[in-house]
Amino acid sequence: MDLSTPIKYLKGVGPARAAQLETKGIFTVEDLLLYPPFRYEDRRNLKSISQLAPGEMATVIAEVRTARAAGFRKKNLGLFEMVASDDSRSRLLCKWFHGAYLESVFSPGQRVALYGKVEFDSYSGELSMLHPEYEILSGDEDEGDSTIHTGGVVAIYEAAGRVNTRMFRTLLHRLLPETPALTDFLPASILHRLELPSRGEAVAGLHIAGGDADVRLLNAFRAPAQTRLIFEEFFWLELGLLLRRAEARKSDGIAFELNDRVRERIKTMLPFKPTGAQKRSLGEIAQDMAQPYPMQRLLQGDVGSGKTLVAAQAAVIAIENGYQVALLAPTEILAAQHFLYFKNLFTPLGYQIGQLTGSMTAREKAQMKKLIAGNYLPLVVGTHALLEEDVDFAKLGLAIVDEQHRFGVLQRLSLRRKGAAPDILVMTATPIPRTLALTLYGDLDTSVIDELPPGRRPIITKHLPDSQVEQAYSFLRREVDSGRQAYVVYPLIDESETASMKAASKMHEHLSKIVFPDLRVGLLHGKMSADDKEGVMRQFKAGELNILVSTTVIEVGVDVPNATVMVVEQAERFGLAQLHQLRGRVGRGAAQSYCILVTEKLNEIGRERIRTLVDSHDGFKIAEMDLKLRGPGEFFGTRQSGMPGLRFANLLRDQEFLEQARTEAQRLVDEASVAGGPPADELVRAAAWVRENWQKRYGLVEAG
Ligand code: ADP
Ligand code: MG
């Protein structure tokens, strides 16, 4: 038996159980060893039932007396009741709703471990537990030594089909003593410095806690065995990202020249004096662009901080060096808007600029592609259409990707293949909490614009329940009467998607015919043709519309400084970061702006989320809160966000280890670059391990 032995060959497993284990990703002996318990239970000095007090969380070991579906009246709730008692002869009543399936689980005389919150059941006057976790301690399973389940600190596993926690424990107790030594791939210098247990010790300690184990530490995932595995997981991830970055630096790129002539051109173009943060970011970008390897930089900045202007300056550097620039936008509206913005900036410089989007006709596209391939266009703005294979740049030198998280790593790569090795600048207006930035963009260098252009006033944000939406409308009217414009935003366009949602188009009718019959109310949503969208945007920008009813298509980039009010309906349906983005559509001029969040139903978390937005303007703070309240998977509002699936580590809980892993990985890469010596050997070994294992798992490091 070795680590790669298929699980079905393990004693006590067989094909049926193997199939169930596979549903949890357990295919081999190694997978089983790395299947972490989610909780630990202290069964050393258990209380008897008579010692329990209502309100506490407790484990008891007792014997089943009776177990049956509850009487006639409660039967329709599927209530299942089980009574257990122990040597103290006291009774503990256990109840499960929808518990009919338990009929085949419990029978009188069984010994069971029960874990749950102790309550006082006023109906029967007894101590009770509602939906306790349970483990049958006696039974006909091939369990071997039963003391592994009682009397110590025991590991609790999430069941895999019918493979329950007890069976996991049995299998692992049997497997661990026979396990071939686990090779430790973490560099010895790191193990030593951080005083980490070896991989073998850590895996053993994960499953078998030992007599003097600290259960509180284990349940906080802070026992040395656990933190070693958490650290290790982050370490390989960060090392993979750093290696990718190091490799990119070795490849040949374009060393752009930034001379006085280029500086002069930039100055001619600038409509404002850049802020300090803009200058600093441009400095970092220009320095990268001057290097002979491809730039890979992330430009972060809150909405309205002026990222586009910085990107435009970078574009001038590339263009003046005789190269083409591609600007990728996530939506057609944004592409159209960038097109206009750059046209204004670049026309005085004499640059021709083009646009390529999915909704163009085949002929228009073909023509545009010819111009791109013939090097007639120094700047091309586009959507995903720019990534299509037959788009051939004559001399792509710089690719600017706006709103990166919608593109993902693969598209970043396909962009790189379009030029020999173009510099890449990724812009994101979603402030990314550091933990996510380190995991998702750990291979990029980062610049942050942490300063807004002068003269901006913070947006005033208010919260209104749905029943008072009229107040929002009358406020909106006052602003429009004084010459301002307003947005009204809805979460979804098509009513068929969710009956309860007000469709923006329907509300457009309501607002334009009944609430504001005398005002010009436009409609913008994702299903309109590109021409129609552009038309509406142009009208709104020109002030021909007072109010724009919209879905979230306006979320990014739309820039109309005269718009001072935004009403967001059903605000509870949006992510916090998304609401913050939306809110950034107002407050873009000198006038005081307002955002009114209208909500229907709010639970506790919902209230906290809305409060965060009302109280804070800091995009990073809001993003952190969003991450906390919704978790990393939901953070970007999409599952295909490229988040690596982590086994031990948790981005929210384990940030400190992520930082530590980053530092250690960086140190290893740095020390190894001073040629020769042991660190270089360690890096070679570690890099090979990352390539073989992490690439497979997460596709993090490019082949070769
Ligand atoms: P972002 O893309 O970061 O959300 P934009 O680049 O769209 O921000 O800039 C927001 C607004 O601020 C735009 O109207 C832009 O022209 C303006 N702006 C950018 N930089 C400055 C500056 N240094 N001074 C004044 N206004 C600026
Ligand atoms: Mg922008």
Can you characterise this structure?
The chain has 704 residues and is an alpha/beta fold. Among the domains are: 45-151, Beta Barrel (OB fold (Dihydrolipoamide Acetyltransferase, E2P)); 260-449, Rossmann fold (3-Layer(aba) Sandwich), CATH 3.40.50.300; 460-616, 3-Layer(aba) Sandwich (Rossmann fold). The protein is 38% helix and 17% strand. The strands form 4 sheets. It has a 7-stranded parallel sheet with strand order 11-12-10-13-14-9-15, with helices on both faces. Helix 7 (224-250) crosses helix 23 (677-698) and helix 11 (332-346) crosses helix 17. The longest helix is centred in the middle third of the chain and has 27 residues, at 224-250. It is globular and about 90 Å long. Mean pLDDT is 85; it is low at 493-502, 636-642 and 699-704.
